[in-house]
Amino acid sequence: MTKIAILTDSSSSIYNVKHNYDHLFMIDLPCFIGDEEFKDFDQNGDEVFYEALRLSDKIPKTSQPSVGETLNMYELIRDLGYTNIIYLPISKELSGTYQNAFLASELVEGITIDVVDTKTTVSILGSMVFEACRLVRLGKDVKTIIEEVIALRNRTGYYATINDLTALVRNGRLSNAKSILANLLKLKPVITLTEAGKLVSLETVRTYKAAIKAVIEKVVLELDHNNGVVHVSHTNNHRDLDYALKIIKERLPHTEVKTFTLPATVVAHVGLQTLAVGYVNNK
User: Fold this and answer.
1) What is the pTM for the complete model shown?
2) Do 109 and 11 share a structural domain?
3) Position 58 in a domain
4) What string of DSSP letters covers 140-200?
5) Domain, as residue range, for 23
6) Which tens digit of pLDDT belongs to each residue from 37-67?
7) Is residue 59 one of the residues assigned to a domain?
8) Residue 119 falls inside a structural domain
9) What is the pLDDT of residues 68-95, one digit of tens each?
10) Residue 203 phi, psi (nearest 5)
């Protein structure tokens, strides 16, 4: 009899959402500030890393799970009696996590692994993960679950702006970053997570508040105003969060809005002065 587990990584930030899915598993993407390692986010949350980052002048780094670590997780899930794993990791354009997951899937025995290029991350990835969990409970097969979560991904969008680009540029996570680096001190980017799963700067504006407004307007244009849900992700900067929520309430007074903290593994690359707004258009 088929028994399906859903696996994701900590970029999905599922550890910040209460749920009762016992068939859901997560692999940490650890963060480093100097020699200090931060992980176990399901127990510690993000604030420990946030605070350490505030107090440090070092450039943080992240690490993808090794093939061996991923293989260990596969075997742990197998030994719990599961016959199948659907692994929904961070976009392969943003991390080597996908590649190592695929390599590990060729080494494990006694369980079938499907690794999906989600082409996304953060709360959008979390939405895909929880939808997969819901479909498992409904008794759907692996093929149907994968088709449905990919269809969900295609009904999403994600935009962000960053008040300080230093971390993102130094970590090389932003395409065409050179075009905005010269204006680092005066212009703020409007960044999108593309359909291919890359972070790309669409435009720049003169102030951070204007950039937040621009990000929200992108979402307003693409959101299904009848069935869509808005996602706002922040780094516990409540002044910027409140400003964004006020604008969203004015522009989308009847739309459900969910707030999330940005996972540490993403903040390590974008920094603490970041606000993102995305959407999920439900059927």
Assistant:
1) 0.92
2) yes
3) no
4) --HHHHHHHHHHHHTTEEEEEEES--HHHHHHT-SBTTHHHHTTTTT-EEEEEE-TTS-EE
5) 4-29+64-153
6) 999 999 988 999 999 999 998 889 999 999 9
7) no
8) yes
9) 999 999 999 999 999 999 999 999 999 9
10) -165, 170
